[in-house]
Amino acid sequence: MKTLQIQKIAVGSPQQAAELPALLDDAGIAFQPINQVNWPDEYPYQPVVAFRMAYTDQALLLHFRVSEESVRSVAGADNGPVWEDSCVEFFSIPANDGVYYNMECNCTGRLLVGGGIGRQGRERAPQAVLDQVSRWSSLGTGDMEERPAPAQWEVALIIPFSTYFLHHITSMEGCTMRANFYKCGDKLSKPHFLSWNPINWPKPNFHLPDFFGQLQF
Questions:
Q1: Helix, strand, coil % in the chain, rounded to nearest 5
Q2: Where are the beta strands (DSSP E) in the chain?
């Protein structure tokens, strides 16, 4: 199981997600690869993907960087099927009650957040919760059909602790959290399902907390 130390940003907390790349550069926060190809026989394609994370007194700071052969964003709205687009994801368990959250963002900042104890019957975050997540995409915010050309893009998110809408989280300091990070694109011309921590399962499935890694704040 992979373990990652998450650094606190004590000063200069960002107000907008567009500030994150420069802020994390200044803080020396390194990128971590999302490079586990868990189902190589059926889904061998491996885009180049990395993430980095820090936190403040109020929020998680998350920055993804992607290079892939095509890009797609047609989900159209928050809580839509963003996983079918060029999509990056962060799954995490904030407490010890078995509830985990899936936070999924496509390449133009459409966001999906769900919570629950299993893949079925998950509760979607209300729009008021999603609206509190500041987002920035290097591709802008417009929808686009798949572009079959090499694409490089970035997404940054400021995720307030209130995004864990089924819990009351006030601080991450000193906490240890189980989590995994993903890159997918279910309806791209080259579907793929990459993870940070390996997944030992016979078919693509990200909703498997047993295969989450560990974040130490």
A1: 10, 40, 50
A2: 3-5, 7-8, 32-33, 36-37, 48-55, 59-68, 71-73, 87-93, 100-106, 111-116, 123-124, 134-137, 144-147, 151-160, 176-184, 193-195, 213-216
CATH fold of 3-201, please?
Immunoglobulin-like (2.60.40)
* Distance, CA of 43 to CA of 65 (rounded, Å): 21
In angstroms, what CA-CA distances link 200 with 2, 36, 37? 14, 11, 11
Give the residue among 174, 191, 6 at the shortest CA–CA distance from 83. Answer: 191
User: What's the mean per-residue pLDDT of the chain?
Assistant: 97
pLDDT one-digit tens code per residue, 69-83: 999 999 999 999 999
Helix (H, G, I), strand (E, B) or coil at 185: coil
107 and 139 in contact (C-beta within 8 Å)?
A: yes
Whole-angstrom Cα distance, residue 2 to residue 182? 14
Strand 36-37, strand 7-8: pairing: unpaired
Q: What percent of the chain has pLDDT over 70?
A: 100
Q: What is the phi/psi pair of residue 130, to 5°? A: -60, -35
What is the spatial distance between Cα 162 and Cα 116, in angstroms, rounded to a whole number?
Answer: 16
Burial group, residue 111, by CB count within 10 angstroms (0-12, 13-18, 19+): buried
Q: Which residue has the tokens 């885009």?
A: 47
β-strands 151-160, 193-195 pairing: unpaired
pLDDT tens figures, 181-194: 999 999 999 999 99
pLDDT value at 11 more than 80: no
